[in-house]
Amino acid sequence: MPVAPAASPFAATQPVRRPGTAADLARATKNPTLEQTSAPCSVCDGPIDPARFRQVWISLRVATDVLPLLVNACSTACVEALPEPADGYVANPHQGGPAVQQPEPRW
């Protein structure tokens, strides 16, 4: 009997519609931390330009656990610089939602 694919545990990130200010970006993404113009990139710690903002999920091993981390990145280059996700989890940074293909279970 075929097994249905697992539903994605990651909430879909919201598309950004090129807002004009950091406050507009915060409202568009429902991310109040971006109302501060000094909100840093999760990768390089640089400022986030609303025109180049990227938000992705990644699963990383922390000690003995694997945690889903939401990354606020200032550019595509910072998303590409993220470390390799943990083995057995989604193999690349993604924007979440039902279209994300989950790996096959190991059991």
Automatic annotation (TrEMBL):
Q: Which domain of life is it from?
A: Bacteria
Q: Where is this region: Disordered?
A: 1-23
Designated name of the protein: 4Fe-4S Wbl-type domain-containing protein
Q: Which organism is it from?
A: Phytohabitans aurantiacus
